[in-house]
């Protein structure tokens, strides 16, 4: 009668094993079966206690996110309703947490009177990352276990605890021995409880969660002050306030009323555009790894040794990723000093991690020992993967690849970290273009999660599949891109920044442009971003675009002028802004420069509205994204959104540029582009061309961006 659980009896214990692969998400059918099993055990006089566990699966990863917005989500028993029923059990229930207890999964465990975890289990409430709050009792039961302050911290961080920390906090009652079977330990625990005639549900240690750990009541304005202190960081996100309201309810209301309030708050968030955007990214991330033609049966190339060419910031950061997972790396440089500098920088980075307690001294030394410096290409002969991170010039890269073709063993994967150059041209100077691929890391490469995996025309499927797998192993989010100028991310950056620069000539100030973008939620405005990465870097990557100057003499002129003056941004103390230490201020000379250039180019200066800045920068970004999708450079809209949220600071709660476009309405985006095409004369005529796919989607009345 059960399809998603195993129900069995072990003398006086009922064992309820959840087995809905892959992660026991609490979909409707599983909820129905848990309810039925619970009722069966409750009604059986031979059963004295119940144990819930994951049968050969993680305990539970929470509510079934795919059900959100469907009738199945609310179908009885809804999760909150089910957990209220379990928490009212007349017999002790023990949750045996193996693997994971996340979100609704942890709420399931908290609805049991007792919890035991295996030492390697991880527990937490990741709902905030989906724009939600724990909506099945988490915001009411956790504060009663650990106090309101800790509960707020844990729920708002979305952080996962290891089992030991969960034990220390009182979220679990005990840990199973590392060598013991979790289920056996849970059974022993249940029998102990029965032996002690323990209550089915013990009293909460913080029956009044509003009393602080110090023993004093939380200040009356604790929640309001907390929200005020985080307002800038939250940036208009609604879920954190929802969490505070729910935990406040736990402090002020009896459990049943608090649970009711929690449900109302959860339901409101579930409908919010922000949560929809974050859920879109959740599924986009899972989709991104799926590439037509690649499945689990495709044999991958073994990667036991990696080589990185170039020990600069980028090369060093890339090398660290592999050392971090125990893969030996040869780091190749041309000169001894550069190599020593690079290795010293890597050591420094690890030392910072060690100081922060993220690494032991022993681990630091182990990782350094995996890094072998070299000045000789011959040391690359046995590498399974070589990644070049040399100067961004086609000439230089081609030379490197021609040499690699000579020295590398057959079957080695040859990767370029180029951010804009044509992988096919690079591959063409080898006799093995099928082994060549782009691996575009983002700086700092040991930190940033995005990895654009650039598939050349001839890249072999197993090379692509190996790169995707390895990318995941080193903790990155790999997204596949086809070959074009700048791939997905930098190609979209180009029209977006072009508009920002042009708006300065037309009358906007750098501070205004950046403010409009940060008001939207971007980490930083595009002009500040170039000051950070280097105006010289921007200049360099625009090189292939310079031909357009003939058609548009205003193209990125202000940035080019700053480059000529050696004002590279933060590193030279001056760029679009003036920097003094950490302070940044407006540069009046930039304004004068913009006025002069506008005069020379015959551009009429005027007052520019924030709306115009938003529309011109964002619509050009979106339009390019749609064009990239249409050309097949990106496999799906979600991939584009991942690149921009993960690599370019686009706010996750807007779901990425294309999801944002859907929220704005595709018609609005199209009519905005058409409007500027007319309004901006020859400039508009040149640049404001709607992507054909955007026109088709609007004409067909579609609201979602997709090629199908
Ligand atoms: C919640 O609980 C709300 C409640 O408080 C209140 C309700 C009233 N649902 O990531 P992976 C799928 S909100 C549905 O590739 P990993 C995933 O889509 C929820 N599906 O593996 C993928 O499917 P496919 C709070 C889920 O090992 C497959 O499982 N919980 C769910 O790298 C494998 O996933 C969370 O936010 C789910 N809950 O990571 C946890 N979870 O193969 C979200 C996973 O078809 N999940 N799937 O592409 C995760 O963080 C990771 O998936 C996890 C596994 C760490 C579990």
TrEMBL record:
Catalyzed reactions: a (3S)-3-hydroxyacyl-CoA + NAD(+) = a 3-oxoacyl-CoA + NADH + H(+)
InterPro entries (alphabetical): 3-OHacyl-CoA_DH_NAD-bd, 3HC_DH_C, 6-PGluconate_DH-like_C_sf, ClpP/crotonase-like_dom_sf, Enoyl-CoA_hydra/iso, NAD(P)-bd_dom_sf
Gene3D superfamilies: 1.10.1040.50, 2-enoyl-CoA Hydratase, Chain A, domain 1, NAD(P)-binding Rossmann-like Domain
Main location: other
Sequence ranges assigned to domain 3-hydroxyacyl-CoA dehydrogenase C-terminal in this UniProt record: 486-579, 614-703
Pathway involvement of the protein, from the record: Lipid metabolism; fatty acid beta-oxidation
Keywords recorded for this protein, A-Z: Fatty acid metabolism, Isomerase, Lipid degradation, Lipid metabolism, Lyase, Multifunctional enzyme, NAD, Oxidoreductase, Peroxisome
Domain 3-hydroxyacyl-CoA dehydrogenase NAD binding intervals: 305-481
Stored Pfam families: 3HCDH, 3HCDH_N, ECH_1
GO molecular function: (3S)-3-hydroxyacyl-CoA dehydrogenase (NAD+) activity; enoyl-CoA hydratase activity; isomerase activity; NAD+ binding
Localization, UniProt: Peroxisome
GO biological process, one term: fatty acid beta-oxidation
Coiled-coil parts of chain: none
PANTHER family: 3-HYDROXYACYL-COA DEHYDROGENASE-RELATED (PTHR23309:SF51), 3-HYDROXYACYL-COA DEHYROGENASE (PTHR23309)
Record's protein name: 3-hydroxyacyl-CoA dehydrogenase
């Amino acid at each position: 009668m059960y399809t998603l659980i195993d129900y069995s009896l072990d003398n006086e214990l009922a064992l309820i094993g959840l087995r809905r692969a892959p992660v026991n998400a609490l979909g409707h059918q599983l909820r129905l079966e848990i309810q039925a099993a619970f009722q069966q055990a409750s009604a059986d006089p031979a059963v004295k206690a119940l144990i819930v566990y994951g049968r050969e699966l993680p305990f539970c990863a929470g509510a079934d996110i795919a059900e959100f917005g469907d009738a199945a989500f609310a179908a009885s028993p809804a999760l909150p309703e089910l957990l209220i029923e379990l928490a009212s059990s007349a017999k002790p229930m023990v949750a045996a947490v193996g693997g994971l207890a996340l979100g609704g999964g942890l709420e399931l465990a908290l609805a049991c009177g007792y919890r035991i975890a295996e030492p390697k289990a991880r527990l937490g409430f990741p709902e905030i990352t989906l724009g939600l709050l724990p909506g099945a009792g988490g915001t009411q039961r956790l504060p009663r276990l650990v106090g309101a302050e800790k509960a707020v911290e844990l729920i708002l961080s979305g952080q996962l605890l290891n089992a030991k920390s969960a034990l220390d906090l009182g979220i679990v009652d005990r840990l199973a021995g590392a060598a013991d079977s979790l289920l056996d330990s849970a059974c022993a625990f249940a029998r102990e409880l029965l032996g002690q005639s323990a209550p089915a549900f013990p009293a909460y240690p913080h029956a009044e969660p509003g009393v602080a750990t110090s023993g004093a009541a939380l200040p009356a304005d604790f929640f309001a002050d907390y929200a005020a202190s985080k307002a800038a960081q939250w940036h208009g996100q609604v879920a954190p306030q929802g969490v505070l309201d729910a935990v406040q309810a736990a402090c002020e209301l009896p459990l049943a009323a608090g649970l009711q309030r929690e449900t109302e708050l959860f339901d409101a968030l579930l409908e919010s555009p922000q949560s929809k955007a974050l859920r879109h990214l959740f599924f986009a991330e899972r989709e991104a790894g799926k590439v037509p033609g690649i499945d689990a049966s495709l044999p991958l190339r073994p990667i036991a040794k990696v080589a990185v060419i170039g020990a600069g910031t980028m090369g060093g950061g890339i090398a660290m990723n592999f050392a971090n997972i125990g893969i030996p790396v040869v780091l190749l440089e041309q000169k001894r000093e550069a190599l020593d500098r690079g290795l010293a920088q890597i050591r420094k980075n690890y030392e910072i991690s060690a100081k922060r307690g993220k690494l032991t001294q022993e681990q630091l030394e182990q990782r350094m020992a995996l890094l072998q410096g070299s000045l000789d290409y011959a040391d690359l002969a046995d590498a399974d993967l070589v990644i070049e991170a040399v100067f961004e010039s086609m000439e230089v890269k081609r030379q490197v690849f021609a040499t690699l073709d000579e020295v590398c063993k057959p079957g080695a994967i040859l990767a370029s970290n180029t951010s804009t150059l044509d992988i096919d041209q690079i591959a063409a100077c080898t006799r093995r273009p099928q082994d060549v691929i782009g691996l575009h890391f983002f700086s700092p490469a040991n930190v940033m999660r995005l990895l654009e995996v650039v598939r050349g025309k001839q890249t072999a499927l197993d090379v692509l599949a190996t790169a995707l797998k390895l990318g995941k192993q080193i903790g990155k989010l790999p997204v596949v891109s086809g070959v074009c100028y700048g791939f997905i991310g930098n190609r979209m950056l180009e029209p977006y920044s072009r508009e920002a620069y042009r708006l300065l000539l037309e009358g906007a100030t750098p501070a205004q442009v950046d403010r409009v973008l940060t008001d939207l939620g971007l980490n930083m405005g595009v002009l500040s971003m170039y000051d950070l990465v280097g105006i010289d870097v921007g200049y360099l990557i625009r090189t292939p675009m310079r031909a357009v100057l003939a058609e548009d003499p205003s193209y990125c002129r202000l940035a080019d002028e700053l480059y000529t003056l050696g004002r590279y941004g933060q590193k030279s103390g001056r760029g679009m802004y003036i920097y003094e230490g950490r302070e940044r201020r407006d540069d009046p000379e930039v304004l004068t420069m913009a006025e002069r250039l506008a005069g020379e180019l015959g551009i009429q200066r005027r007052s520019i509205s924030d709306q115009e800045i938003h529309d011109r920068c964002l619509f050009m970004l979106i339009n390019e994204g749609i064009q990239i999708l249409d050309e097949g450079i990106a496999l799906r809209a979600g991939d584009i959104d991942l690149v921009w949220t993960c690599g370019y600071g686009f706010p996750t709660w807007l779901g990425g540029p294309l999801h944002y476009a859907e929220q704005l309405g595709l018609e609005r985006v199209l009519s905005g582009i058409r409007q500027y095409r007319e309004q901006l004369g020859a400039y508009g005529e040149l640049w404001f061309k709607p992507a054909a796919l955007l026109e088709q989607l609007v004409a067909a009345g579609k609201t979602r961006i997709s090629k199908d």
